[in-house]
Specification:
alpha/beta; four-stranded mixed β-sheet
């Protein structure tokens, strides 16, 4: 294997508590001049990764930090008596993915995954089949032709984000 054939992927895991930690990692890596050839993420890692893939620089990491510092739980998980009532009615999710969709729509620096400065690959679980799905092109924040869900959140129940 030659040095020119080696590719580096930035892989960001899911799990809401990892989201802010990933921002610190992105700041450290980009600040040290370390660069990736592509970004792969799932759940919160897909959201952070999608933003960073659009601006994979120290400024991009600082912008992501500003977003995290401004976010509040109710921006993403607006739990109200109505959402609890909906859960009691046996919906397959506790809260809507609308908050995540709105975050992607208003904060991502591009509209389609293939427009990111670095290739972005979203790893998701298809909730109907249980199969792993890798999404590398298509709408990142605009409405997709699949009932109004976005590519970053359409196959993930909001409780996974």
């Amino acid at each position: 294997m030659t040095t020119s054939s080696v590719r580096t992927a930035l892989v960001l895991a899911g799990g809401g508590s990892f989201g802010a930690v990933q921002v610190g990692m992105l700041k450290a890596l980009s600040g040290a001049g370390l660069a990736a050839d592509m970004v792969v993420g799932t759940s919160v890692g897909a959201i952070n990764g999608a933003y960073f893939a659009g601006n994979p620089t120290p400024d991009g990491a600082a912008g992501l930090e500003a977003i995290w510092r401004a976010l509040r739980r109710h921006d993403i998980f607006p739990i109200t008596w109505w959402t609890l009532l909906g859960f009691a009615r046996r919906r397959n999710f506790l809260v809507s993915s609308e908050g995540v969709r709105r975050l992607a729509e208003t904060r991502l620096p591009y509209r389609r995954l293939e427009e990111a400065r670095l290739p972005m690959h979203v790893v998701a679980t298809d909730i109907l089949s249980g199969d792993c799905t890798v999404l590398s092109e298509g709408s990142a924040a605009d409405e997709a032709n699949d009932g109004g869900r976005d590519i970053l959140v359409r196959r993930l129940p909001p409780s996974c984000l």
